[in-house]
Design goal:
The chain is mainly α and 396 residues long. Helix 2 runs antiparallel to helix 8. It is globular. The two termini are 22 Å apart. This is Major facilitator superfamily (MFS) profile domain-containing protein. One of its GO terms (cellular component) is plasma membrane.
Length: 396
């Protein structure tokens, strides 16, 4: 199938492009705004924690809502509210009266709406396309976010010399508005069938039961939970480590993330040829072992370009494992339960991220940052042994 001749795919593809660009701008600019305000690794880690909290606190509830309401309505109204919040963020920073708590609250709300729209988009895709196409579709969507990750930080790093943060936030607002307008034109889908008298708690329980009973999905969900904890130890302090500890510039930080994002292109492109030769379970298990080795090498990296290369390897691994996981989730989950299963699995996978971000930030305030990489490597290595015990490598 030629996806690019399909109108519905082009619309979803365009939405993903705008979402990827806006996400890249947000994750690059907001840490710098916080750094200028506080010069604190803990404050920057706390901001990342606020962005992940909606998944932990509201994941199951959002899943129930997505399974009860029409997915098109979720995309349209969720996108509109997110657009309004992005304008509030722009005005808050432009007024030069921004406080840390303003950013925390807006970050939480934007992440809540972003997660809701993402869940609805994930659930509507199998309604619009055959399930056998999910792996290919996820590979194409992942490639979008990877390319955007390359373009965004590299351009932002260079243009920071001439432009202030407002210019980038204006682009962020435009992307949010464009995504909402496209959502209004996506092909209409049926509202999932739902028992009228069933309570929210019963809905949540039904989603949990489906996830736990699906061994193909539950095993990688637990390993991703552990992997996310390992990543959260690092991501909250990386900007602080590169700029404050290693003494690099903001432009070099942008180049580092550009190098890192290149790995995602290889990950998206390698998925199909590897899938033709190996089982998805074999690919997944091998990638986890490689990730543990890469994290160990982080301990010895003391330059922005070497960190960029190692981050590129991690990005490649992350893209490939995410493609496999999302495809398995969409293929093996009944569509009327997909919102709840996605919400529950996402909540579980990100349950420990706020804790990891807080620990990473506190660690960086007192002890040397490189030892965090060793702790992360050990956590990921544990995943490899869990997957071997569950015989996940046998999954097709």
């Amino acid at each position: 199938m030629n996806f690019y001749t399909n109108k519905t795919f082009r619309q979803l593809y365009s939405m993903n492009i705008l979402a990827a660009v806006s996400s890249t701008i947000y994750t690059f600019i907001i840490p710098l705004v916080l750094y200028d305000l506080t010069k604190s690794a803990l404050a920057m880690s706390t901001m990342r924690m606020m962005e992940f909290l909606p998944n932990v606190l509201l994941g199951m509830i959002v899943g129930v809502i997505v399974d009860r309401l029409n997915r098109n309505i979720m995309l349209i109204y969720g996108g509109f509210i997110r657009f309004v919040l992005s304008i509030c963020l722009l005005l808050s920073i432009s007024a030069e009266q921004t406080t840390v708590w303003h950013l925390y609250v807006l970050g939480f709300l934007l992440s809540t709406l972003g997660y809701t729209v993402g869940n609805a988009s994930n659930a509507i895709t199998p309604q619009l396309f055959e399930k056998s196409l999910m792996t290919d579709i996820q590979a194409k969507f992942s490639l979008i976010f990877t390319i955007s990750s390359i373009v965004g930080p590299s351009i932002a790093g260079m243009l920071l010399v001439w432009f202030n943060y407002d210019a980038f936030l204006w682009l962020y607002v435009i992307c949010m508005g464009g995504s909402w307008l496209i959502a209004c034109r996506i092909e209409k889908t049926e509202t999932p069938v739902h028992p009228q008298q069933q309570s929210i708690w019963a809905d949540i329980k039904e989603g949990v039961t489906e996830l736990v009973g699906n061994k193909q999905l539950f095993t990688p969900t637990i390993t991703i939970l552990i992997s996310n904890f390992a990543s959260s130890l690092i991501i909250g302090v990386m900007t602080f480590y590169v700029i404050d500890i290693l003494g690099n510039t903001k432009e070099q930080l942008g180049l580092m993330y550009t190098i890192a994002a290149i790995g995602g292109i290889f990950g998206a492109k390698l998925m199909k040829p590897l899938r033709n030769r190996f089982r998805r379970g074999q690919i997944y298990c091998s990638l986890v072992l490689i990730e543990a080795i890469v994290l160990t090498v982080f301990f010895f990296a003391h330059s922005w370009w070497l960190l960029g290369i190692l981050l590129a390897l991690r990005t490649c691994i992350s893209v490939m494992t995410n493609i496999i996981y999302l495809a398995i989730r969409q293929e093996t989950t009944p569509n009327h339960l997909l919102g709840r299963v996605a919400g529950t699995s996402s909540m579980l996978m990100k349950l420990v991220i706020p804790l990891g971000l807080m620990i990473g930030g506190m660690w960086a305030e007192v002890w040397p940052v490189p030892f965090i990489f060793i702790i992360s490597a050990l956590a990921v290595l544990m995943n490899f042994f869990l997957l071997r015990k569950a015989k996940f490598s046998e999954i097709e």
